[in-house]
Amino acid sequence: MSERTFDVIVIGTGTAGREAAGRLAQAGLSVAIVERELVGGECAFYACMPSKSLLRPNETLTETRRIPGAAEAATGHLDVAAMFARRDDVVHHLEDSSYLPSFESQGIALVRGSGRLDGDRCVRVGSDVLVAGKAVIVATGTDPRIPQIEGLREVEPWTNRELTTHESVPARLAILGGGAVGAEMAQAWCTLGSQVTLIEAMDRLLGREEPFAAEQVAVSLRERGVDVRLGARAASVRRAEGGEVTIELEDGTEVKVDELAVAAGRQPRTGDLGLETVGLEPGQWIDVDDQLRVTGVRGNWLYAIGDVNARALLTHVGKYQARVAADNILGKSSAAIGDGPGSPRVLFTDPQVAAVGHTLQSAQDAGLNVRTVEAGTSANAGGNFYGRGAVGTTRLVIDSDRDVIVGATITGSEIADFLHAATIAIVGEVPLERVAHAIPSFPTRSEVWSALTAQLGF
User: In this structure, is residue 441 part of a structural domain?
Assistant: First the structure.
């Protein structure tokens, strides 16, 4: 058994953990970072990056076919083998050596193995004992949640990992769950050639987003051949000897497929983290304050960032939280005000759905006095060149008492980068009369802002 001391120990090398470690090392602290799997984390290998590489080819082809002149050249079909090859390049063929030089250059010690808390400021990794002089940061992320459905675990369903890295295309694929992962992967795999059935227990997809956005995505998926079943719950699942999976729904109907994937939410990766040694309950989400310090642990030495604290399960939120946590460890008073349920988020289907802050319903539930304005995302000169003829709506949710924007949802073709302007307006609480003086360029689809502010009387 060996013991080493560092200023800070980070458990988990996903985006949040790497960002925190890098900031602290650059500030001159000694840092160790612990990883039990691939250095780089879920987003890099099994989630954000590979999923977008599978979605992008069809997104590009669909947009090209909207443009006269280019559409005539966009003949033929997607090259599935090339798509898989590109995805494999994006995830470095599930090999993590490309991440190691940055640790070495910053003087960060990488410790491979399962890190477990072992009391005050102590982390055990196998026979190694790591002691933190200043802080320990938990950035272990999440695992897929497998619902308690009869027979589900026994059929060995796919999770996000198989959905983003599988090497062949099943003829028939069912996905349980119509949230962001389910909707994106339904589109990806139908364009790869699977007959996809998307099963969602709620009466619409994307339960946290505006209903109009969910409806536009559902219509698009159905137009692509996806069998979207809403208000449908799986009662039991079984796999035959030949491999066929049968999903029996609560209404008595059956869905027969070659593979079944589960996209029904996430659960914290804290079951074997040693939380009990610091007075916390294993397997639970880790509660933190606005400085990202773990509540219920004395001494302000334990932090939790990224998905594991459940404030918002988004890669960019974890990166933001890493900055806030690092600032506090370095003695710079900082509070997380940009994360939480209203964080910016993007669904990379066609149409894309980009949202930040409140929806109309969540604003009303929060007791705000709100009104909305809407405009067609491409109903302007810029729409002649991007998103031509594509469905798309931009909605702003306005706090009428303060005359500031508290929510924005934008749908349309290739609109993900539109979102940051709305994020700045909301986080900065920019008065509407000042927003109206931010002149959008011509001819771009950003002129949707002029249409919206005109409806508000500016």
Answer: yes
Sequential DSSP letters for 269-326: S-TTS-GGGGT--TTSPPPB-TT-BBTT-TTS-EEE-GGGG-S---HHHHHHHHHHHH
pLDDT tens for 73-99 read 999 899 999 999 999 999 999 999 999
Q: How many CA atoms lie less than 13 Å away from 62 in the CB half-sphere?
A: 22
- What is the C-alpha separation between 145 and 373, in angstroms, rounded? 37
Pairing of strands 227-230, 195-200: parallel
Tell me which H or E stretch contains 336. none
What letter does residue 442 receive in the DSSP assignment?
T
pLDDT surpasses 80 at 1: no
Q: Phi and psi at residue 136, in whole multiples of 5°? A: -120, 135
Interstrand relation of 128-138 and 302-304 (parallel, antiparallel or unpaired) = parallel
For residue 58, tell me if it sits in a domain: no
Amino acid letter for position 312 = A
pTM above 0.90, yes or no: yes
Query: Do you know the residue count of the chain?
Result: 458
Written as one string, the DSSP assignment of 57-88 is HHHHHHHHTTSTTTGGG--S---HHHHHHHHH
Identity of residue 378: S
Amino acid at 241: E
- What is the number of structural domains in the chain? 3
Q: What are phi and psi of 81, to 5 degrees?
A: -60, -40
The Cα–Cα gap between 417 and 426 comes to: 16
Residue 302 sits at φ, ψ, to 5 deg, of: -105, 125
The residue assigned the tokens 């209404």 is 251
Looking at residue 246, which CATH number applies to its domain? Answer: 3.50.50.60
The CATH number linked to 356 is: 3.30.390.30
Query: Are 351 and 413 within 8 A, CB to CB?
Result: yes
Q: Is 206 within 8 Å of 213 (Cβ atoms)?
A: yes
Instruction: Read off the pLDDT of residues 171-226 as tens digits, 9 standing for 90 and up.
Output: 999 999 999 999 999 999 999 999 999 999 999 999 999 999 999 999 999 999 99
Range of the domain at 363: 351-455
